[in-house]
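Final report, Chapter 2: Outcomes

The project's central promise was a pipeline that accepts a single protein chain and returns its three-dimensional structure in a standardized token representation, suitable for archiving and comparison. That pipeline is now operational. To close this chapter, we reproduce one record exactly as it appears in the project archive, with the input sequence first and the structure output second.
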Amino acid sequence: MTKRSFLLAAFAVAILAAAPQAVAAKPNFSGDWKMNVEKSDWGPIPSAPESLTRKIEHTDAEIKMTTTQKGPQGERTTSTTWKTDGSEQTVKMGNAEVKGTAKWDGDVLVISSKREANGMEIGQTERYVLSSDGKTINITNAINAAGQEFEVKLVLEKQ
């Protein structure tokens, strides 16, 4: 085997070894999900919901989420749609306009956003992780409001 043939063969092996990683599909979060109250942790939020359901429609280019939560302040439903290409966008959440991005960090979907509420800026970074069996979404939400930082952890189970 000539040196050139050896280098070409080594290069081909390296490309083939890397190919499965390069084409690995991103997780798909589509489905009807329900919060596991016992496994979720709302941190210092005093009026955490008693129940929360989320319907997710996820395509390669975007993720649409409709969330219904019930708690001490009643029931409310919000819907958002995020493009998952990392582009900055503005979405409606209830009466508020939220600016942010949704992008992939490996196989973790990261949604970062900022909005104003009662004259205060609220920033949050949500990290969506799908379990290997596709039956659980773990969401870690780092929140910064009025200079206070805290974390909320949601565990959603597929219905």
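Archive annotation: The chain has a mean pLDDT of 87.
This record, like all others produced under the grant, will remain available to the consortium after the project formally closes.
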